[in-house]
Amino acid sequence: MRKLIVFLGVFVITAYVNAINLMAADNGSSFQMLKEKFIEGDWRFMSTILISLILGLALSIERVVTLNLASVNVDKLLKKVDDKLAEGDLEGAKEVCKSTPGPAAAVIFEGLKNAKYGPEAVEKSIVAFGSVQMGLLEKGLVWISLFIAVAPMLGFLGTVIGMIQAFDKIQQVGDISPTIVAGGIKVALLTTVFGLIVAIILQLFYNYIVTKIDGIIIKMEEGTITFLDMLIERGVFK
Q1: DSSP state, 234?
Q2: Which of 12, 19, 45, 146 has its CB surrounded by the most CB atoms within 10 Å?
Q3: Per-residue pLDDT tens for 69-97?
Q4: Is the pTM of this model over 0.70?
């Protein structure tokens, strides 16, 4: 998993650099303006905001890829398991679950392993292992939400420092001239804007991921209920 996150981080950085190079080739003035705004926003804060974006996107893409791989058709899985159980092939049903990716298959496999101990043991194993799978699905969300919170905070920190710089210049010169305070205010506004943009982008990814997880969990819960009924109907418990 760490290797995948590192790979995605490198991919995002490479894509970002390529996009900037393409922009520079197609429209030199636009690239120059973007570069100037980045520098004017104080590179110390703008760099940390950019790092938050890159890391947040890497984690978000990793979650999206993982969740899409975990989204199997539960109905088809249960149909295959039911066919094996109808033939009395419990081991075959286990093999079906082993060869199927996703949390639903893992939970059903855990239930099949404990089928010989009775319905109560199956239900307990499904509940316990289901909680583990839910935790795995939500892995990384804390870090994504952290970057969502950190990016605008860094922007606001740049805002405060920019305003302090503006007031320092006013104090040094002793004159409230727009020309004197413009530089500090520009830094304040640019860092805030870029910080909010990063937070908005990551928030969209976060909401999509949470929605995807909720859908998987609902399907998994429905599938386990059907699975328990299936075990009883096929006479697995003796």
Answers
A1: T
A2: 45
A3: 777 778 888 888 888 888 888 888 889 88
A4: yes
Rounded Cα gap, residues 53 and 148, in angstroms? 9
N-term to C-term CA, the chain = 41
Q: How far apart are CA 57 and CA 10, in angstroms?
A: 11
In Å, the largest CA–CA distance within the chain is 91
State the Cα–Cα distance between residues 125 and 190, nearest whole angstrom.
Answer: 53
Overall residue count recorded for the chain in this entry: 238
Structural domain including 221 reads 1-238
Residue 150 and residue 176: Cα distance in Å, rounded? 33
pLDDT digits (tens, 9 = 90+) for 143-175: 999 999 999 888 888 777 777 777 777 777 766
- Tell me which amino acid residue 182 is: A
Phi-psi region of 37 (alpha: psi -120 to 50; beta: other; left: phi over 0): alpha
Number of domains in the chain: 1
Tokens of 15: 């894509």
Task: Note the helical H segments in 28-73.
Answer: 28-40, 43-70
The 10s digit of each residue's pLDDT in 33-66 is 656 666 665 667 788 888 898 999 999 998 998 8
187: nearest Cα among 151, 150, 155, 148: 155
Contact 158, 188 (CB under 8 A): yes
